[in-house]
Amino acid sequence: MMDVYQLKNVTFNYGTEFQLVDVCVDIERSKITAIVGPNGSGKTSFLNILSFLKRPRTGTLIYNGDELNRTNTERFKSSIGYVQQNPYLLRGSTFKNIELGLKLKHIDKAIRVNKVADVMALLGITGLANRNARTLSGGEAQKVAIGQVLVLDPDVLILDEPFSHLDKNSIYELEQLILKFKSKLGKTVIFTTHNQYQAQWLADDIYSVVKGKIIATQTINFFSGSHDPKNSSFNTGKQVIIIPDDIVDLEHIAVDPKQIMLSNEQLHSSMQNCFSGKITGINEENGLIRVTVSAGENFQAIVTHQAFQTLGLSIGAEVWISFKSSSILVF
Question: Same structural domain for residues 59 and 135?
């Protein structure tokens, strides 16, 4: 499948204190990509580059096979639907807010009415058509903001922290919509979040923004904490994990879920990390099984159906998890 974005050694500076360095990222068409990181890490700056609101200082950005330059920026920008954090809705009805972009493009009124109706039906907000947009709930307003860009039929839909300040039901509804944008509309969806588990649930690909670097990673088993170089360990606050020797500076670690071994009894092996815990979740994904184990921290392991059956795993069962320090990504 063709990459819609290819970024090669891209660097971006914002003032004197912030920069993204040597960003190398490929984003596939018609996939969901999550950008994960804490507030202030650079997630929004990265989205500004992907939406062509900001230009990289150095490096190469290729979009749909063409390299970004000053003559094609506006053309690229017109194919992006970017919903910024805390979007601003205009006075007037939900219908008028969603229709606005089409009016500015001088689209015939009959076509506008049909397009807006289709988008509202997709978003499940047809009943809000005549409501004043300024009186909507957070979840409703977020859907209207998405409708404003979706009605223009963008190739790429970019959402900056779309779940912020939403209640549980609104978050679930928006998650389902994002999945629908991919499955039914074939859209490329890129969103930012600080919730690593949400990213894992929704996204095909995940990138973490850490210290100005953008790292492709599975963010399950992603932990923050303090490093003890003397003992080659990392304390998450809930569990002490042995990491590779000779690590100088780190604030985060991630453990490869496919490298975590499950056993009914403690293994006597060279694996330095071995913890007992209880199974709290079991999910089937792409022919494999993801097992969540509470062992101080919540760890997730990926196992085959055969291993799952052999071990006789079930919710609430006591198990041991074991993994090598070499299976840990540090940054």
Answer: yes
Judgement on whether residues 209 and 108 belong to the same structural domain of the protein: yes
Task: Give alpha helix (H) positions in 194-304.
Answer: 196-202
Q: How far is CA 98 from the centre of its chain?
A: 26
- Cβ contact 58:11 at 8 Å: yes
Is the distance from CB of 327 to CB of 256 less than 8 angstroms? yes
Instruction: Give me the number of domains the chain comprises.
Output: 2
Which range, of 236-240, 276-280, 325-329, averages the lowest pLDDT?
325-329
Residue 259 structure tokens: 């490298």
* Single residue among 216, 242, 268 that ends a domain in this structure: 216
| Structural domain ending residue among the three candidates 189, 216, 243 | 216
Structure confidence at residue 219 as a pLDDT band (50, 70, 90): low
> Do 22 and 166 fall into the same domain?
yes
Residue 312 reports pLDDT greater than 80? yes
Q: Any alpha helices (H) in the chain, and if so which ranges?
A: 43-50, 73-77, 94-104, 109-123, 138-150, 168-183, 196-202, 305-311
- Say if residues 205 and 191 touch (Cβ distance below 8 Å): no
The secondary structure of residue 280, as a DSSP letter, is E
Of 316, 325, 196, 306, nearest to 260 by C-alpha is 325
Distance CA 145, CA 150 (A): 9
Question: Is the model's pLDDT at 189 over the cut of 80?
Answer: yes
Residue ranges making up the domain that contains 175: 3-216
pTM tops 0.90, yes or no: no
**CA gyration radius for the chain?**
23
Give yes or no for residue 1 having a pLDDT over 60: no
- Calculate the alpha carbon distances from 142 to 102, 161, 282 in Å: 19, 11, 32
Residue 143 shares a structural domain with residue 274? no
Q: What angle do CA 161, 204, 327 make, to 5 degrees?
A: 100
